[in-house]
Amino acid sequence: MGQGKASAEKVRIANRRALALSLKRQGASYRSIASTLAGTDDISPDYNESQAFKDVTSELRRLQAQNTQTAADVQTLLLDQLRELHSRYWQKALAGDYSACDRILAIMDRTAKLSGVGGDPMSGLLKILDLSKLSLPQLERLANGDDLLRVLINQ
Fold first, then answer.
1. What φ, ψ does residue 76 adopt, rounded to 5°?
2. Is the pLDDT of residue 2 over 60?
């Protein structure tokens, strides 16, 4: 029975954090978030600006971790697809099929770029999505809908 209470508390906190982030995305200040949420639903009337800040920060970190995992999953899927294509053209390339050789080289180039070892500055783009290196203001800008590249170059 204690586990049910703990689960209900986790859901309540998750909902509160999602509400706080939603308000922040709409441009609300932490003070405004606190005054809007205090005393509503299961939120304490003592809910304050500091707690609003913590809720928004926690939710951004949760989303960051989720996005990082999603990016890693996408990268793994793409690399698996490239390996499959590579295996299909390899024997033909070894047998002297120039078209297959061209495909193998293109697949190798794409694999290197996706893995972050290519020379293209945009190579390993999925690694950029590791948002753990971003500051809180940068995360807030992303939460407010700013363009990822502009946030990364601090414009």
1. -60, -45
2. no
